[in-house]
Amino acid sequence: MEDRDHKKIGPELELFYIDPVVGKGLPMYLPKGTIIKRELEKFVIEEETKRGYLHVETPDLAKLELYEKSGHYPHYKDSMYAPIEIDDERFMLRPMTCPHHFQLFLSRPHSYREAPMRIAELSQLYRYEQSGELMGLIRTRSFCLADAHIICTSEEQAMEEITGALDLIEYANSVFGLKLGVDYRYRLSLGDRSNTEKYYKNDAAWEKGEELLREVMQKRGCEFEEAKDEAAFYGPKIDVQMKNVNGKEDTAFTVQYDFCMPDRFDLTYIGEDGKAKRAFVVHRSSIGSLGRTMAFLIEKYAGAFPTWLSPVQAKVIPIADTHQPFAKEVLQSLKDAGIRAEMDESSETLGKKIREAKTHKVPYLLVIGDQEVASSTATLEGREGKIGALSVADIVEKLTTEIKNRA
Ligand SMILES: [Zn+2]
Fold it and tell me: Which CATH number fits domain 307-404: 3.40.50.800, 3.40.50.300, 3.30.1330.80, 3.40.225.10?
């Protein structure tokens, strides 16, 4: 198990590093880890944009007043950092994006024609976690969440959006190679009517909300477990649960139905009759916390990522120094095509160069010797073994197609 543990192989593969001088639970992404993070960001922005999400950016910091308005303060106080005083005003590092997005929605009136309005952001969030709970990239004190809030005109529209959000999650998981029932499972997280301190009080709304989510799950026809007392304080949710290598389960992605915030923020839209009507809200994360998702992927692939996510996608290996000039041309062709490629310029033996590239889990090796120089080819080797001598144009074509399709 240990050779898959992201806490161990993450630093070995130079993906991330946690330094006590910077702080516990505050990971730093090294250049290779940042490449993976950027690929995840590009993927989610591209996919969400296709599905009608509008990406925005809001600040990591806001006045305490905003979290009092949302009710996160005091409900969520224990997970928030202490207020920061600036010019006699108190500010909080944000633990959630919701209040920011609701306030942004209020910047102007909205027509029913704009709904469902899908406001998305890659948000940096800050939550207090006890030292003992901190774990690599899975449980941290700061992380980037692929977050969104969908403003709807009706319960029906909200349920359609919840279904759409689950479709997006399942699509993303399929791209990551994660399978329902094997790598992840669904949990319907319910409230607790008797706990009015933890949950917003409105029994009828809870009953209805929980029943609606249950129906959404039953319609999907996939298995799910129900868990009491796991909801958000503002409503029930559908969680996508994943286990790490050590068997500990965490919520990777979540879709939540909210019947509380629209009242608190007075979120309305102008209906067909010209009158203001109360909106319905869905909170959802598509690929969750990018760090947490990266941790699951490191453990799933033991560092041998699919080509599109690999920090180095191809390694050019000249057999001897005399093959270096042509190898450099090949390297340049790969780079010009946007492929992340490196060349081994050491004077080690071929066997050692190949072992070195394989240790770093590089998906493709291009070996260049006398024959390859004479025929202007490279001998391509993938993770499954030798593919053969191909022209550089063919190799570029093969790799770019695989990367573009996130195969
Ligand atoms: Zn939210």
Answer: 3.40.50.800
